[in-house]
């Protein structure tokens, strides 16, 4: 980003739960995460909501990379986790848009990385990290949060620079099977990939981006009409993506941790699943959006 711009002024730590009430609406009911005035975060929704504000988040390039941390989890092998996230991203990038075609977005796996930290460096290479937290959950929502996606972006333009996902495998058991499901990794991953791509929570219960996940369920694996309308609005079908499309992260790719923290961008912590009461999940470093929650008891909330 350019020197001296408003986005360079500071990094903002914010986690805001988005509570929506769209009423009895049909397809094309969705929300996109936004960068609002003063460094706050919010959403723009279809249908429009009274609190809508700001510039929608989006990846500026149609080619974006992701990388799993090489150790994966004691419950989920690297091969299994890799297959799950390939499928989760494919649900979004291969969606059939109403206008014809698929979203103009391609996700590229650059391979496992050694770094296990959420970070974004302006001086060194980066990776869009996916990491399991087997030992402990380092963020708010101890015992309730299933996952957190942190997005670093330009406050002025909404361009996403970096995104990292953390999965709370210390406190829940993720499964990758179709029977004896505990917390279905593919369901959680598909929901989180929506946040990674710039979506906020939907209001209708059958949407993958709805704030509730029911344990033992695989219901969030499949996109509904609202999810598809959302991703097609962010990345409309267009000319073919070049075969040589470059998915290298901003400032280059690195498998190793840089340790640097950005001073020129905001970051969004987009939470996936936490228990009620509905709360926003803050994160320790530069945070922008907390995109929702799942309810208590049989359900969990993302806060």
By CATH, the superfamily comes out as Collagenase (Catalytic Domain)
Mean pLDDT: 80
**Any idea of the CATH topology?**
Collagenase (Catalytic Domain)
SSE pattern, N- to C-terminal: EEEEHEEEEEEHEHEE
Structure description:
The protein has 303 residues and is of the alpha/beta class. It contains 3 helices and 13 strands; from the N terminus they run E-E-E-E-H-E-E-E-E-E-E-H-E-H-E-E. The chain has a single domain, classed as Collagenase (Catalytic Domain). 13% of the residues lie in helices and 19% in strands. The strands form 4 sheets. A 6-stranded mixed beta sheet has the order 5-4-6-8-7-12, with helices on one face. Strands 2-1-3 form a 3-stranded antiparallel beta sheet. A two-stranded parallel sheet has the order 9-10. Strand 1 and strand 2 form a beta hairpin. The model is unreliable at 1-25 and 270-303 (pLDDT under 50).
Strand and helix layout:
Elements: E1 30-35, E2 41-46, E3 55-56, E4 63-68, H1 78-93, E5 106-109, E6 129-132, E7 147-153, E8 160-167, E9 174-175, E10 183-184, H2 185-196, E11 212-213, H3 225-234, E12 266-271, E13 300-301
Parallel strand pairs: 4-5, 4-6, 6-8, 9-10
Antiparallel strand pairs: 1-2, 1-3, 7-8, 7-12, 11-13
Helix pairs in contact: 1-2
């Amino acid at each position: 980003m350019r020197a001296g711009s408003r986005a360079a002024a500071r990094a903002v730590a914010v986690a805001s739960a988005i509570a929506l009430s769209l009423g009895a609406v049909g397809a094309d009911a969705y929300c996109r995460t936004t960068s609002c005035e003063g460094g706050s975060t919010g959403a723009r929704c279809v249908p429009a909501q009274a609190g809508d504000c700001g510039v929608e988040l989006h990846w500026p390039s149609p080619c974006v990379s992701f990388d799993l941390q090489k150790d994966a989890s004691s419950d989920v092998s690297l091969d299994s986790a890799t297959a799950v996230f390939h499928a989760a991203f494919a649900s979004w990038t291969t969606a059939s848009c109403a206008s014809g075609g698929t979203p103009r977005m391609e996700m590229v796996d650059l391979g496992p990385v050694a770094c296990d930290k959420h970070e974004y460096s302006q001086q060194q290479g980066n990776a869009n990290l996916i990491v399991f937290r087997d030992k402990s959950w380092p963020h708010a929502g101890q015992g309730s949060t299933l996952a957190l996606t942190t997005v670093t972006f330009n406050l002025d333009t909404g361009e996403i620079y970096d995104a990292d996902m953390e999965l709370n495998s210390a406190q829940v058991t993720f499964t990758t099977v179709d029977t004896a499901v505990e917390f279905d990794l593919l369901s959680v991953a598909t929901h989180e990939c929506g946040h990674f791509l710039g979506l906020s929570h939907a209001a209708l219960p059958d949407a993958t981006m709805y704030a509730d996940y029911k344990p033992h369920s695989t219901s969030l694996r499949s996109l509904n009409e609202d999810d598809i309308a959302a991703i097609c609005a962010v990345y409309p079908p267009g000319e073919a993506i070049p075969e040589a499309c470059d998915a290298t992260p901003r400032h280059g790719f690195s498998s190793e941790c840089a340790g640097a923290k950005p001073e020129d961008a905001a970051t969004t912590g987009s939470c996936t699943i936490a228990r009620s009461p509905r709360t926003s999940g803050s994160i320790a470093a530069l945070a922008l959006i907390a995109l929702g929650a799942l309810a208590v008891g049989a359900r969990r909330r993302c806060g």
